[in-house]
Write a structure and sequence with these properties.
This protein is mainly alpha-helical and about 270 residues long. The chain is built from 13 helices and no strands. The relative contact order is 0.04.
Length: about 270
């Protein structure tokens, strides 16, 4: 629109403005922006489609996995029902057919309990990755002395000797056993054994290894009861020394002493 001298001409500006056809020309920068935007849109669309397909595939795989898990749980639930109804052989057969890797710890424990009940100790140990101490601890928790004896004969260990001595109340043998893996339960067992041997100091030392309010209370009750017994004995002796003995009082104190000793024994 500019004239040769650089000034604006309104006439040229207003005269036949539509006579020439103007072809819009895009700058290189604008072309790049548009092309880039188009490519980016295409990439986003492709990524979205791929993500949708992948998500659908993942969802389908997840559903298949859940269906497999449901079938497995149904199978295991049926096995539990068999075991509860007394069909331990049937339950063992079902459990043995399941891949061990698919069993949870709780399910393995049920399986192991059934194996132990059937005295299939070698299979139980194998189920626990060839760790007999795990099976031994489980048998010890049951408190079945005969099972513990049989297992100790097949898989002898210091742990088994310690636990067996405890259940058979062979306190001195239990204390002399070396190489035992001391757990909280065994510290408690050892402290209890020391009480049975009337060694309160040693019992407290064992109890110090664990945080057991029940055990500490038991030791405290033992000390209190033992003191009460000594006081009752003293009263009986003093009454017997008198010239005029009160037989009724002596009898009452003697009965009281017996009750205290029985309580100490059953502690």
């Amino acid at each position: 629109l500019k004239t040769t001298d650089g000034s604006f001409s309104l006439e040229e500006e207003t005269e036949n403005p539509m006579q020439k056809t103007q072809t819009p020309v895009l700058s290189t920068r604008n072309r790049r922006l548009i092309y880039s935007g188009g490519v980016l849109s295409l990439l986003i669309l492709s990524a979205t489609c791929f993500s949708t397909v992948a998500t659908s595939q993942d969802r389908a795989e997840t559903i298949q996995d859940l269906q497999k898990q449901v079938k497995l749980e149904q199978k295991i639930t049926g096995t539990y029902e068999k075991a509860l109804l007394g069909d331990s052989e049937g339950a063992l057969k079902r459990l043995s057919s399941i891949d061990e890797q698919s069993l949870t710890n709780e399910q393995k424990n049920v399986y192991m309990s059934l194996l132990i009940d059937k005295k299939k100790y070698k299979e139980a140990v194998k189920l626990q990755g060839n760790h007999p101490e795990v099976v031994e601890s489980m048998i010890s928790e049951k408190g079945d002395v005969n099972e513990l004896k049989e297992f100790q004969q097949t898989f002898p260990s210091p742990n088994g000797a310690f636990d067996l001595a405890y259940h058979e109340k062979r306190w001195e043998d239990m204390m002399s056993q070396s190489g035992v893996d001391m757990t909280d339960k065994r510290y408690e067992m050892k402290a209890y054994g020391y009480l049975k041997l009337d060694k309160v100091k040693e019992a407290k030392e064992e109890a110090a290894h664990i945080q057991s309010q029940d055990l500490n209370q038991k030791i405290e009750t033992y000390e209190k009861t033992k003191k009460e017994i000594e006081e009752t004995k003293k009263q009986v002796e003093e009454e017997n020394k008198k010239d005029k003995k009160d037989e009724n009082k002596i009898k009452s104190l003697t009965d009281q002493q017996k009750k205290q000793e029985e309580a100490l024994k059953n502690l």
